[in-house]
Each structure stands twice: as C-alpha cells, then as structure tokens.
Write a structure and sequence with these properties.
The complex is a heterodimer of chains A (about 325) and B (about 280).
Chain A (H helix, E strand, L loop, with lengths): L1 H14 L25 H21 L2 E4 L2 E4 L3 H8 L1 H31 L7 H9 L6 H11 L6 H8 L14 H26 L3 H9 L4 H12 L1 H17 L2 H6 L11 H10 L3 H32 L1
Antiparallel strand pairs in A: 1-2
Helix pairs in contact in A: 1-2, 3-14, 4-8, 4-11, 4-13, 8-11, 11-14, 13-14
Chain B lengths: L7 H34 L3 H4 L12 H47 L5 H13 L4 H11 L5 H24 L4 H9 L4 H12 L1 H17 L2 H6 L8 H11 L4 H30 L7
The chains are: A mainly alpha (about 325), B mainly alpha (about 280).
Chain lengths: ~325, ~280
C-alpha cells in the first residue's frame, strides 16, 4: 500500500517543474518555488493510505463475501440483503430520523438559547459555560450517565415526574421511544456548540440595525424576526451541516445507551456496521458503510452547495 | 441586546428575572446530572445501586477511587497511559503535517489546488469505511497497534486542521515570506523559522480542540485497537459498563476521572476551545 502511494506522490512531485509558473523554471537552486510540493507528502501518505484507499476499496468489498483473508465476488447480494431484511433496512430509516431530529432541535434550541444568552441578563458568562460544558464530556460518559437517569423505575427522570403525578415511560426500554430518547440526549450534549455559533453570529450584528429599528417603532419580537433571524443564515448553515454530519454518523452514544435495542428499534447505520463486523459479515458490514457514504453524500453535499449559494445571493 | 430599552425599569426586571430563570433551568437540566455523577461516585455500592439523587450516608470517595484504579489489574492506569500517548502523539503529528499542507495550499497556485481542497472537504464529510481500513492496516502490519491508531486519528482529524491553518496563513502578509527569501532562507527555514512561530495562536486552538476529540474518541479505539493491552479511557469505561453493572459507584467514579482532564482543559483554554469549535470550519 505504501508503495503505491509513494509512487503516485513522486509522480505529482516530478510534475511540478513542467507547470506554467514563471518561478518554477528548472534551473537548480535559485529559482525553485519557496513553497515546495513535497510539503504535502507526509500528510498525503497518511491520508491516502488510511482514508482514500479504504474508501475506494470499500466499493469493491461491498460486492463480495469477505473474510479479511479472501473475498468472493457476489455482485449486489449484500445490498439485496440490506434492502430486503427489515431489521437492516430499518437502520437506514432510523439514521434519517435521528439526524433530522438532532439537527432540527439543535437549530431551534441553539438559536433560542443563543438569543437569550446574548441579551442583557445577569450571570451571562456563567450560563454560557454551563450550556457548553457537556460538549466536552465523552459520548460514553454521557451515555452511561443518562442510561441511569432514564431508568424506568429508579431513574431520576421518572422519579421526578412521579412527584408531579406523571408516570414516566420506559425511555430506553420502550421500542417506540428508545431512538427518540437517545436523540434527545444527543441534543442535550451537543446544543452547546450550536448555541455558541449563534452567539458569535448575534454579537457580530451591528448595534445600529437595532437602534434604527427602534426608531422606526419595532418591538423586540419584530427586530428579532426582521433583523436577527435573516442575519443568522450563515450560522444556521454551519449548525445544520455540522449536526447533520454528526447525526448521520452517530455511533458512540447509541451504542452505550441501547446497543441498538430493544431488538433493533434504535439501530442506526453505524451500529449496524459494527454489529455485522462483529458477526464476521465483513462484506455486508462494508455494504452498510457504502450506504452510509451515499446517504451522507446525497444529503450533505447538495445542502452544502445550496445553503452556501443562498448566502452569496443575499 | 435585542430587547427594547425604552423603559429602564422593565429592563432591570428582565435582567434579573431572565438571569435567575436561566440559572434555575440550567441547574435542573445541566448541573443536576453532574452532581448526580459526583454523589453516586461517593456512595457505597449498595447505596449507589438505588440510583437515588441523595446525599451519601457514608462518604466513600477515596475508597472508591482506589478501588476503581485497582480494578482488573490496574487497567485504568494502562488506559490513561495509552490515551495520553494517543492524544499527544496524534495531535502533535496532526499539527505538523496539516500546517505544512495548509501553508502550501494557501501560498502556492498549482493545478493540484482544486483536487486537494476537494479531498480536504471530503475528509470532513465522508464517514470512514471501517473494515477496509482494518484490511489496509493489517496489510501494513499496524492493526491493533498504538502507533497504527495514532496514524488513524491523524488521517481522520487532518481535514479540520488543514482548513484552520489555511485560513490563518491567509492573514500572514506575503511580504514577510519575500523578505525571508531575500535574506536567503530556503523553504524549510522559511516555514519553520518564519511562518510556524506566527501560527502560535491557531496551533493552540487546533491542539486543544483535537485533544478533546481524540481523548473522547470511542469508535476508532473500539475498531482499530481492541483488547486489554490497547485499552483507552473510553473503551475501558464501556467495558466497565458491562462488568460493573451492579457497582454504579465505581462506574461513576470512572466517569468522573475521565471527565476531569476535560474540565481542567476547559478552565484553562476556554477561549481557544470556543474559538475552535465555533469557527464554522466546514465552510472552507
């Protein structure tokens, strides 16, 4: 593997003196570019070897029955299995639901908390740090903590609800609810980033806009609707794309909280890939990876292009 | 900020009422889970198993600390050593190789720029293919090794770093390069003596943010460094979850221990963490 990457790199390195750049005339020493192409080399070797090559070969291996040592070409069999077995196909639907809920809630809550935490209130700095800190706690730590808090009988959440006479559901034991509970915890731990991105955007709005609006008789709600919201488009773009990428790939939190269960009710693509890998179905596992790749590409790339273009139009 | 300032009295009411409401809500939503972790970590095993949010009747904080460190033949010590080597090694390597790329990518126009920028963006978006990566690592003889995992973290974290460095290099005037070249500096001296020192503030940001990511990473150690010898703090916590299902006090002590480095990091590098994570680097 290293051999192929090295040769392709030296290929590109020897190509540079030929390019139409006046400083790059091949007169030894003096006229060489001060920004040599070989600066790319260390990064390129690691990146191509451990990221680009696996990504490209995954397309081939997803079409095989594979035991790491030898692979047998079986055509689209793995994908056929994936789309015909409900418990495998469901993971695709769950991934979409999970990504939509987490990024939607992060946008809405992030914006609301962001506006609130940039208004004139006491203890603003403290509140900002408190909202942000969960971002730094590992997904495993958050997952273990919340699987205890969400215990159907002794968990703190249901006991608190009982005080108000509400019988709390089995957050993680009810198959209809487990996926949503995990998504909720994901929002709990990740809303801090969205909030800070919005705060950075709000702080950058010139005060004159609000003053001018006030002179024109706009109230707080109106100036939020007509000034803050439209100017938050770049921040919203960033939040949506970041949380979609995170949500579609999400693994650690789901794995520590439910293991994809009960049954397969909270399995997402990333956890299905891991389960099939554990079971030794490497071809099927890789097919799951390819589906995830296509899903991310189909959703994120057009969105990226569309949202960034809208911004330029304004 | 967005509220009307027409009536100063109303404004003062909002300032206090809003702040207090915020404190109450964040305490319930965000602080209570952390207090719960600390309280449970201080209880006896029996009391912790009740999962109650209550003051420990008997404080066993240090006993639990000792017990969790000694558990399974001091595996937590191994895990902390491994995680430290992993974090320091991969972040150092990541910073150096990505700074080189970000710098040349910003400074030099060549026909490769488009392709390289595309690959960097792809690195941010594309989910890595797991089993083929294991296959490649086995071929190279680095599967189930710590240096193999370090290279994996470098490969997956590089894209973010390159974008940060490219954006920052754009703010360094080219005249500086030209002056250094006039003085006879070669490419290596130009980069390491002139440019690299100027990158200090962005390097701090990148180091802090990537340290958090690598230290908290669970998925990559799980796939690429399985087994007790390669335990990291996150995989150890996951393994404890299965084994200590009756000793919640020890489990929560472990959570406390592995969250502490992040808390210290946040106290000392608050500004850099916030700057790095909100930079909106995806926009390239």
């Amino acid at each position: 593997m290293t051999m192929t990457t090295t040769t392709s790199q030296t290929g590109s390195a020897s190509a540079w003196p030929a390019e139409p750049e006046p400083t790059a005339r091949k007169r030894r020493g003096k006229k060489r570019s001060p920004y040599p192409m070989w600066f790319y080399l260390p990064a390129a070797i690691i990146y191509i070897g451990l990221f680009v090559v696996p990504t490209f070969t995954s397309f081939y291996f997803s079409l095989t029955r594979w035991t790491i040592f030898d692979s047998e070409f079986v055509g689209l069999e793995n994908f056929q299995t994936f789309f015909s077995e409900p418990f495998l196909f469901q993971s695709l639907i769950h991934t979409l639901i999970y990504a939509a809920i987490t990024s939607g809630l992060k946008v809405v809550l992030g914006l609301l908390i962001g506006v609130f935490l940039s208004s004139q209130i006491i203890a603003r700095g403290y509140l900002r740090s408190v909202v942000f800190f969960p971002v730094l706690v590992s997904a495993v730590g958050v997952g273990v903590t919340f699987s205890v808090l969400m215990d159907p009988f002794d968990g703190l959440i249901n006991k608190s609800l009982a005080v108000f006479g509400i019988e709390g559901p089995g957050w993680l034991t009810d198959p209809n609810l487990a996926l949503y509970s995990v998504a909720f915890v994901d929002v709990w731990s990740g809303v801090g980033i969205a909030t800070l991105i919005y705060i950075a955007g709000i702080v950058a709005i010139p005060q004159e806009y609000f003053e001018a609006a006030k002179v024109d008789g706009a109230n707080a709600v109106k100036s939020f609707w007509n000034i803050t919201l439209p100017l938050m488009r770049p921040a919203t773009t960033t939040v949506i794309i970041l949380s979609l990428i995170g949500g579609l790939r999400s693994f650690a939190l789901i794995w520590t909280m439910t293991n994809g269960g009960p049954g397969f009710s909270s399995d997402v693509l990333a956890s299905m890939v891991y389960k099939q890998y554990q079971a030794g179905f490497y071809g099927l596992s890789t097919a799951g990876n390819v589906v995830l790749f296509v899903l991310v590409a189909v959703i994120v790339v057009p969105l990226f292009w569309f949202l960034n273009r809208k911004e330029v139009d304004q | 900020m967005t509220t009307a300032t027409s009536t100063p009295k109303l404004n003062r009411t909002y300032k206090w009422a809003g702040g207090l409401a915020g404190i109450v809500v964040t305490t319930v939503v965000f602080i209570v889970p952390f207090i719960f972790i600390v309280l449970t970590a201080s209880k006896t095993g029996q009391e912790a198993s009740l999962l109650e949010f209550s003051w420990p009747t008997e404080w066993r904080f240090f006993e639990n600390l000792v017990e969790v460190v000694q558990a399974r033949d001091y595996i937590l010590v191994t895990a902390f050593i491994n995680s430290t080597i992993l974090t320091v090694g991969s972040v150092t390597l990541m910073v150096v190789v990505s700074a080189l790329v970000g710098y040349v990518l910003q400074r030099r126009r060549s026909r490769w720029n488009g392709l390289i920028s595309f690959l960097v963006l792809a690195g941010l978006i594309v989910p890595p293919a797991v089993v083929p990566t294991i296959w490649v690592m086995q071929g190279l003889g680095i599967y189930k090794t710590l240096h193999g995992l370090i290279l994996i973290e470098v490969a997956f974290g590089m894209a973010f770093c390159i974008l940060m460095f490219r954006a920052f290099v754009a703010t360094i005037p080219r005249e500086l390069d030209e002056a250094a070249i006039m003085d006879g500096a070669g490419p290596i001296r130009l980069f390491f003596k002139v440019i690299f020192p100027l990158l200090r503030s962005v390097i701090v940001t990148v180091v802090v943010v990537q340290s958090v990511f690598v230290f908290n990473d669970f998925q990559n150690p799980l796939y690429f460094l399985p087994g007790d010898k390669g335990a990291t703090v996150q995989t150890t916590l996951y393994a404890f979850q299965g084994q200590f299902s009756t000793s919640w006090n020890l489990l929560f002590m472990d959570i406390l221990l592995i969250t502490l480095p992040m808390l210290l990091m946040y106290i000392f590098f608050n500004r850099q963490i916030v700057a790095g994570m909100t930079s909106g680097a995806v926009k390239g």
